Amino acid sequence: MSKIFVGLNLLLAALLAFLVVPSIVNISSSGAAPAADPKGAAVAIFAGGCFWCVEADFDKVPGVLSTTSGYIGGQVANPTYRQVSSGSTGHTEAVRIVYDPAKVTYERLLFVFWRTIDPVTKDAQFCDYGTQYRTGIFATSDAQLQAALASKDALEKSGRLKRPIVTEILPAGPFHAAEEYHQDYYKKEPLRYNLYRFNCGRDARLDALWGAEAGGGTR
User: Fold this and answer.
1) pLDDT of residue 10
2) Is 127 a catalytic residue?
3) Rounded to an integer, what distance in angstroms lies between the CA atom of residue 164 and that of residue 72?
């Protein structure tokens, strides 16, 4: 292995460390609650690993009105990023998606969700490991729950994936908005975000799993 190659690897590792730990770690409180949803809008909640990436993907879907990064599925009220990232609260990073059901169906959102995650890896997504990165669908109604279960069943029966799906499907509990600096992070810090996403191997893994359907039409 050449000295140049080793040097490049060390440089990339340093950049990744800089990107993943922004200079705002002193912020300790959760973000403010999102604004009231528009009349007639519906809500979907998905956990797909790093919420920066999930936000970026779903903001591209026509009919999606807003996305909010946050935490769900844990036992601590109003958790902070520092608490959740330690893996001690039981939460997973998730995104609350407000959408117009007249323009996009929940079934379409499910199609996109599956193809923007790795549903066969437990308690991890791409380069991020721990229960706080587990994938999940958190249904806000019984109709959503049944649709999510049906989509999982259809995907398993298709034989498309070579291993069992480990994504959890549950009724939604309390959702806690993340700190403000996490919201729209891919817009606020595009260089950091894109370097993180590339070095994490997210899109490369999605290509390997889903082929031409990777991204579900969000690329």
Assistant:
1) 40
2) no
3) 23
Give pTM, 2 decimals. 0.86
Of 50, 53, 127, 200, which is the active-site residue?
Answer: 50
What domains are defined for the chain? Answer: 39-214 (3.30.1060.10)
Strand-strand pairing, 168-171 and 64-72: unpaired
For 122-148, what is the mean pLDDT? Answer: 98
Selection from 68, 88, 70 nearest residue 78 by Cα = 70
How confident is the model over 82-94, as pLDDT tens digits? 999 999 999 999 9
Contact 171, 138 (CB under 8 A): yes
Q: Is the pLDDT of residue 22 over 90?
A: no
CA distances from 74 to 26, 31, 77, 92 (A): 22, 17, 8, 7
Indicate the residue type of 1. M
